[in-house]
Amino acid sequence: MIKTRFAPSPTGWLHIGGVRTALYSWLFAKNNGGEFYLRIDDTDKSRSDQKYLDSILSSLDELDLKSDKDVIYQSQRLDIYIDNVEILLNNDHAYYDKIEINEKTKDTDLSLEFDNRLNKEGHVIRFRNPKQEVVVEDLIHGPVKFSNKAIHDIVILRSNGMPTYNITSVIDDNFMGVTHIIRGDDHLNNTPVQQNIFHALGFDIPKFAHLPMIHGTDGKRLSKRHGAVNINKFLEDGYLKESVINYLAKTGWSHGDQEFFSISELKKLFSLNKVTKSSAIFDYDKLNWLNQQYIKKMDLNDVAKLILPYLQTHNLSDIDMAYLKNILSLGIEREYTLKEIAKSLVYYFIEEIPYDTDDFKKFNPSKDNLILDKVIKKLSDNNFEDEDKLGLCFQEFCQENDLKFKDFGPVVRFGLTGRLKAPAINEICFLLGKTRTIDRLNNFQIFMSNNAVASNE
Ligand code: GLU
To answer: Does 9 sit in the ligand 1 pocket, CB within 6 Å?
Structure first.
């Protein structure tokens, strides 16, 4: 059976590139009827942090990239690593090396962190690399040759007693029965040594697939400079897990021109031989578009439920779900995350609309106040029971007063919403209902009068 794993270190937030590695490992396993495991590489105590661990676990969980077996923690397996280092020592595949006093490596760290029977003061243990070329048959890059000059006798046990990544990873990948190691190609250079360690310990060598890095649109490795890279930020801002998964699946893999993939389709279609050899580009605009498409396709009840907690962050209580659903039915043309959508809808729920004085400058208070008098009067005669009839009412208003829509539409919209861009005014009036509509327009008239006075002083 095919077994893959994702092995993050809890030394930082989970990068979106790491999520893609987890996703490809998960998809490859599922596509082949196999299993996916999660391992936490937490041997570096000084850099590991519970908050990072919690957030890695919760975001993978939220994305449904769940381990098929209990999560393995390397920090709980230190004795097993020592047993294996001892085997290597006994078979002459490893040796003690005295630390040079001027060696500027972590190995000069003499304070003991893990007291074990192999520790020898002032010494590290190195793996004795066979002096021969190593070929990594990578499933994405093809055969990659490493001359013996490129492979060093790496430290496998530090002088502080802690085993290092290359040995712990090999021991665990073997213990977990991993058949395919899928990871970022920043680890390609570690692979020849790891293959040698697998061999020296008498383990089967798994297959390797090194994924090209994700770059920003400027061609540089994706980092904070480009925007959010921490998966939590995306999830918190209200990117849907479906669109994140869809987008990441497409970042370095393709299936013809198809843009939209459900999770079950991805499980059916994913294959490593369609993964690009060159770096993939992370395009925030494309992700935003995709997220918006997913939200637009969702059932309004579900969108309303998802938006609710975001609206509540704006100190809104007692939100009427039917009202919210009606608002959402007007569409979400411009915004693309749940957070932004919620923010753009706050004006429907508040009593006092905050008017931006800069935007307000576009209006002419003395003229517009007179127009609003007439609009209010006209609307007072309408029962607000039919959205189309409200539309007709505004048309009649134009004719009766010999006005064009642009003469009063923008000021009514701004008065009702505090925004220059918002849905059609008959739609807004219908949603708000008669009382709120008239109240808002009256309040706006007061605001206009005050500001007109202020600007005349
Ligand atoms: N803990 C390592 C990392 O986060 C795992 C690398 C691997 O997949 O072998 O880079």
So the answer is: yes
